[in-house]
Specification:
The complex is a heterodimer of chains A (about 90) and B (about 625).
Chain A: E1 3-6, H1 16-26, E2 36-41, E3 46-51, H2 72-76, E4 82-85
Antiparallel strand pairs in A: 1-4, 2-3
Chain B: E1 10-15, E2 20-25, H1 27-30, H2 36-47, E3 61-65, E4 79-84, E5 91-96, H3 100-106, E6 109-115, E7 122-127, E8 130-135, H4 144-154, E9 161-164, H5 167-170, E10 178-180, E11 184-186, H6 191-197, E12 200-206, H7 216-231, H8 234-242, H9 248-253, H10 269-280, E13 285-289, E14 299-303, E15 313-315, H11 319-328, H12 334-347, H13 351-366, H14 385-397, H15 401-405, H16 409-416, E16 426-427, E17 430-431, H17 440-448, H18 469-476, H19 490-507, H20 524-535, H21 541-562, H22 574-578, H23 592-606, H24 617-622, H25 628-631
Parallel strand pairs in B: 1-6, 7-12
Antiparallel strand pairs in B: 1-2, 3-4, 3-6, 4-5, 7-8, 9-10, 9-12, 10-11, 13-14, 14-15, 16-17
């Protein structure tokens, strides 16, 4: 299972990875259904990408997109802020 | 059919007078309109009481998300806010991007309908179906940025999106906007003033739900295809690199910038160069951001690190900010434009509706109709940044001359008189952002726009593209879509974009991903395909464009019911017809006889009455709104 690496400095906070992730898990679109949080600080113009490594608060952990051809968040990211690294 | 896919599912109604919160399903109204803007405008039309001033507590303020918002449809994040227009008394709306719309749908709502007036300042807090009206006494008087900061400190939830007004909204300045978080603005028509008139400081939303679509895999594939297509498009790359200010130089080169209150139409080479160079060098840009679900990324985070405006920062500076401050007020320092834009965001002011009355006052000063004594000791000189900073503050707090300017140039000129009415550049009472003399279709759309003076209700950008007539025939079925000076067939072109813009608002798709701003982007067929895959409702592009047409009729009906607008209301400001443009199109102006003919063609196209500019009962029936005429 690949691990998702993040590059915060590239992230545009568009949340397309979040939507792709929730689709992977639920075949639906929402933020809580995803294993990714995009934390944007509009004051400073900074972003932190958080990948959930463990299930918590009713949310699923990242499973590296098992059963998908590629990790969907990586495919959907328009700026290359996410990378899949095989372990 | 009743649609259950893609929508949030509910209409949230908040009566602030009674402190009552109720909900109802969206589905019954969706059976009649493909959600979004159609339902919004229907509710506004049916429930706005007749004979009440726009700031009357009985009026509605409706927040609406688009049908495809919250899905990966490229750029589908928009929300539309509608109300009785503070500046025109007619239909009013403003639109914003950001994350609020998607979050509202994840909370289970497509619309929030706010009525009444709270006894004391409040904010509405939405956590899925749990909605409360919360005291906001500690936030009243604060800027939008401080409000956002305090609410985030106060509310600890995994996701939180906010709308707020600043002092401008609290003091019911007609130029007040509603800010989405800190960086997106729903700006026109005085929506912020209506929110202030209800003692509503903010809305907070957190949604934990998700949206289903009819064909999940087909929809995902179609969205990803479109995303990749958009990202490869050269114009989109420009937007990602420079934001919409990349187009400022082009507008100025064509002599279509409002300069010194529309007295001229091109800023001088030195000033233009100062702005264009800063844009090209990305001098103040730190990085690019996108709204929710947007791969275009036109929102640059900007910061000024040195000079008199050091410390300025913010996001989503538009080409229009440079029209408003650089053009209308003669401020050529781009850092100053950023500083002024930041102040507007903090105070909760619409750049356009705030700068037009200032430009009017500057011209009155230039012509000796206003003196420094009238203006609280300020010398109202073109390009004076300090004076503009002070006037924006005065407008937001209605201090001194700011109280006069806070109601817009049309109202201010009525009070001052002395011929100053000629320098109030407005459409139907609302201040104008756009120069109109050069591009004829552009001018027509702005003049007839139901909300009063806007290019976002049908303004074609094709006239700037300089492409071949053959392509015009192929795409639009007319030979003149790319011909700026030609009046012929512009009524058809405008009608096309009126429908298309309304369709995009129904769906919540940003114009910058579409045929509006470039022909190799998303067109009506793409929208129909995504809509069908998402909802299961297989409407054709033509059928969906007619839903856009229906929205236009709802807005027209609102204006017929609440205003005295007629054919005369569709004529441009006198200045556009009697004073020529400067720059490359020197001498160009809108000709009255040509305009008469153009309006005839525009009304004829739909079979509206030429004398009044109004649709007939048969017209309403033809677009599927047979019962509407009885309600007007």
């Amino acid at each position: 299972m690949p691990t998702i690496e993040t590059r915060n400095e590239r992230c545009a906070a568009c949340n397309l990875c979040v939507l792709a992730c929730s689709f992977h898990h639920e075949k639906a679109f929402g933020r809580r259904g995803a294993s990714i949080d995009i934390l944007k600080n509009e004051r400073e113009g900074e972003v932190e990408i958080v990948i959930l490594d463990d299930s918590r608060d009713g949310r699923r952990a990242c499973d590296g997109c098992v059963n998908e051809e590629t990790a969907l968040c990586v495919t959907w990211c328009p700026v290359g802020a996410l990378l899949a690294r095989e372990n | 059919m009743t649609k259950t896919f893609a929508i949030g599912g509910g209409i949230l109604r908040v009566d602030l007078t009674r402190g009552a919160v109720t909900t109802e399903p969206t589905a019954p109204l969706n059976a009649r309109f493909p959600a979004g803007m159609g339902v919004n405008n229907w509710l506004l039309l049916n429930e706005t009481p007749v004979g009440k001033e726009p700031l009357d507590p009985e009026n509605l303020l409706i927040f609406t998300t688009g049908t495809l918002v919250g899905t990966p449809t490229p750029t589908a994040c928009r929300m539309t806010i509608s109300c009785k227009n503070v500046m025109t008394g007619g239909f009013g709306s403003a639109s914003a991007g950001g994350n609020f719309g998607p979050e509202l749908k994840y909370a289970g709502f497509d619309h929030i309908v706010v009525t009444g007036r709270a006894e004391r300042p409040v904010f509405i807090d939405i956590v899925d179906g749990d909605v409360s009206i919360v005291d906001a006494g500690d936030l009243w008087g604060e800027t939008t940025w401080e409000t956002e900061k305090r609410l985030r400190a106060k509310i600890d939830r995994p996701t939180l999106e906010l709308l707020s007004i600043g002092p401008a909204g609290e003091n019911v300045a007609a130029s007040a906007c509603i800010m989405v978080n800190r960086t997106r603005a729903a700006a026109r028509c005085g929506v912020g003033a209506v929110m202030g008139s209800k003692n509503l400081k903010a809305i907070a939303v957190s949604g934990s739900g998700s949206l289903q679509v009819a064909d999940p895999h087909g929809f995902m594939d179609a969205c990803l295809d479109l995303q990749r297509h958009l990202m490869g498009n050269e114009t989109r790359k420009n937007l990602r690199n420079f934001g919409t200010p990349a187009s400022f130089g082009g507008w100025n080169d064509k002599g279509s910038i409002p300069v010194r209150n529309f007295q001229e139409t091109q800023i001088d080479a030195e000033a233009a160069n100062a702005i264009s160079t800063a844009v090209k060098e990305k001098r103040y840009i730190k990085r690019a951001f996108g709204c929710f679900s947007c791969p275009v990324l036109c929102s640059q985070y900007q910061q000024v690190k040195d000079g008199p405006h050091a410390g300025t920062r913010g996001e989503k500076i538009e080409s229009q900010n440079f029209w408003d401050f650089g053009g209308k007020l003669g401020i050529s320092d781009p850092a100053a434009v950023l500083a002024l834009s930041e102040l507007c965001a903090r105070l909760g002011l619409d750049n356009t509706n705030a700068t037009n009355p200032i430009a009017w006052a500057f011209e009155c000063f230039q012509r000796g109709l206003l003196t420094a004594e009238d203006a609280d000791g300020l010398n109202l000189e073109w390009g004076n940044v300090e004076v503009v900073l002070e006037l924006l503050r005065k407008i937001a707090y209605r201090e001194g001359i700011g109280d006069l300017l806070a109601d817009g140039s049309f109202a201010a000129a009525k009070k001052l008189g002395q011929g100053s009415e000629r320098f109030a550049i407005h459409m139907k009472g609302q201040d104008l952002a756009e120069e109109m003399r050069v591009f004829k279709g552009w001018a027509l759309a702005i003049a007839v726009a139901e909300r009063g003076g806007t290019h976002t209700q049908g303004g074609p950008l094709t006239e700037r593209m300089g492409l071949e007539p053959e392509l015009s025939m192929e795409r639009f079925g007319i030979p003149t879509a790319f011909d700026s000076a030609n009046y012929e067939h512009k009524a058809e072109l405008v009608a096309y974009y009126q429908r298309f813009h309304n369709l995009l608002e129904i769906m919540g798709i940003c114009f910058y991903a579409t045929y509006w701003s470039g022909l190799h982007t998303m067109g009506p067929e793409d929208v129909a395909r995504l809509y069908g895959l998402a909802t299961g409702d297989k409407k054709t592009a033509e059928e969906l464009m007619m839903e856009g047409e229906k929205v236009l009729y709802l807005q027209k009906a609102f204006n017929m019911r609440h205003t005295a607008f007629d054919r005369n209301s569709d004529y441009p400001p006198e200045r556009m017809m009697s004073e020529p443009a400067t720059g490359p199109h020197a001498g160009e102006r809108l000709d009255r006889a040509d305009w008469d003919r153009l309006l005839d063609q525009y009304y004829d196209l739909r079979g509206w009455d030429r004398a009044s500019g109004k649709p007939t009962a048969e017209n309403f029936r033809a677009v599927g709104l047979p019962d509407l005429i009885r309600r007007i």
